[in-house]
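Troubleshooting log. The previous run stalled partway through. Resubmitting the same two chains, unchanged.
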Amino acid sequence: MLNRIIRAGRYVNQSLRLMVGVPEYSAYVTHMANVHPDQPVMSYEKFFRERQEARYGGNGKISRCC
Amino acid sequence: MSSVIAKLGWLAFAMLGAFAFAFIALNRGESIGAIWIVVATVCVFAIAYRFYSQFIASRVLRLDPTRMTPAYKFNDGLDYVPTHKYVLFGHHFAAIAGAGPLVGPILAAQMGYMPGMLWLLTGVVFAGAVQDFTVLFISTRRDGRSLGDLIKSELGRIPGTIALFGTFFIMLVLLAVLALIVVKALAESPWGTFTVAATIPIALLMGVYARYVRPGAIGEVSLIGFILLMMSIVGGQYVQEIPSLAALFTLTGEQLTWLLIAYGFVASVLPIWLLLAPRDYLSTFLKIGTIVGLAIGVIFVSPQLKMPAFTQFVDGSGPVWSGSLFPFLFITIACGAVSGFHSLISSGTTPKMIRNETDARFIGYGAMLMESFVAIMALVAASTLEPGVYFAMNSPAAIIGTTAESAAQTISQWGFYITPEMITQTAKDVGEHTIISRTGGAPTLAVGMAHILSEFAGGKAMMAFWYHFAILFEALFILTAVDAGTRAGRFMLQDLLGAFIPSMKRTDSLVANLIATALCVAGWGYFLYQGVVDPLGGINTLWPLFGISNQMLAGVALILCTSVLFKMKRDRFAWVTIIPTSWVLVCTLTAAWQKIFDANPRIGFLAHANKYKEAVANGQVLAPAKSIEQMQQVIFNDYVNASLAALFMLVLISMLGFGIRTVLQARALGRPSAREAPFELLPAEAIISKT
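Second attempt completed without errors. Output:
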């Protein structure tokens, strides 16, 4: 039961962060370690800025509705 | 055995829903509790989700749980990330829910709550959710590409460009109408204006904090921002009570318009981390929180609906917006029933993060049902007001005058009970000088929410706080949309102009950026100004134009869905998208036609222009114009609006032509011709982890 609550809490947290365009940092680190161990991994700070730029810096893409 | 129990369960559910409907239908003349609307809605949505979306998933689209998704194929930990379906649902819902589903149903309430409710329920089940789901599916099968790209590859290059062109004009009208809502809510309201203005320094502070003090601490910075926001609402009351400060923040609609235009320009050229991003955190979290709070309030308080099921205004003579039930109800309630804008989101970030194709049903269809539920709650909030108060707030000054006495007198003649005291008392309760002609939907929702939330927490003493909280919540995400939309529009414009003037395409050039931004701001600013000075309130002109443009995009997206179904050789099931396509097309084209050619000057732009032309010929000056030059301006505006409506019709008709051509070509072929990414097997762990 407790585990389920913790897991639900984690999903809520992940979802709230994703709502403003920031996916899981740990998933990114794991992915880089597994698939591109040769490439540098961005620090959380860099990762955060990169994501901010991607969400709002735009290229004409629309990330929200009316 | 368990399947029998499940069937009995669904049968019981269906009966509960039918009972709720019967209760609503048979209780005419008496007010009913909002809980009945909620029960009926939940039953309809649960049944639609369980059976209809299941049918679409397994028979029509045939979702394949073993098929590769873009999230695994291009996994980069950034844009393409396999994401749990509940997490992604939240993301998708936050992206599609905005001001649209809140405002449309409130304006539609002038015909009574029943027409709006019925269209919301049927529209979402058979059109809106189907569109969102199908576009999400189509994009997921094509590496998560955008709507413009999908149309290009499935229908051809020209229709792709036409769709992009149409999207740009939707952006302009959308930004204008959203900004108009803010202007109408804040005009002559020092409390509201102060609170909303305070969000700018708060966001700047947050931006610096999240950049340099505690980089990336989103939760922390949002909490700080939220506390400051609440303080600014409380502070607004003091501003209102101190005459010198109150005078500073008491602005007319025209002043606010110029401020907003300047704001739109400056905000969209500032670095994103400084203003846009932190404001987006606040507006997103506040939006989700308020929606949840409103849902809890409606369910637990179950306010009485005072608006009748139908009013006499179904004939099209209503003061809030003009035009008869068909086609204008279906234009007025766009978001919440079917919204073309969602097709841009369903082909945006969501398909890049879907873990398994089968999740598209929950995310695409499910999130749209949720949005429709939000729209139902907005309808409930508007219907809990005394109808007389509702009409006092939503009728333009040209019809009901500017004093409580004149408003009460006119509205009483329509048969709704109202006294001048009721109007002034409502204004006093929510801490405003006046509530007359606060058109645009936001103030109405705010009064409705204040009623519901104050019953839930704080009582009457808190009403003014909740009213300004609701205004702030709407203004906040509208300003975010204005800022982000101007940026998106600028890029679109640079892309379009770049085809003719190559130097405009350089998005790194400051000059090109500033020119494109200025053009974009001027575009929506033009429509905004025109709406603000309109004696009929502006909403009367702009909201139908926005509705038509949004439904036009829905038509375009549904034409794409239908074409793809034929290309997949699912002809047998193509009715699933043909029916909503036809309905959306019929409503949109009829509405656009009437907006241009109807003989009634309150509906038809050309008739309105002619009325002014005749007056000019006779040397008369009609409001809002104060001189012959301004009369010419009104006539010019009418022609611009008529041209825009005609443009939307042209886009839709040409897309229909391209769609029919594609379908005929697909039918002539003996094999499927849809251009999906080639089949690959999903990694085993993704298939197994699917439950």
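Takeaways: Helices of chain A lie at 2-19, 25-35, 44-57. The two ends of chain A are 39 Å apart (CA to CA).
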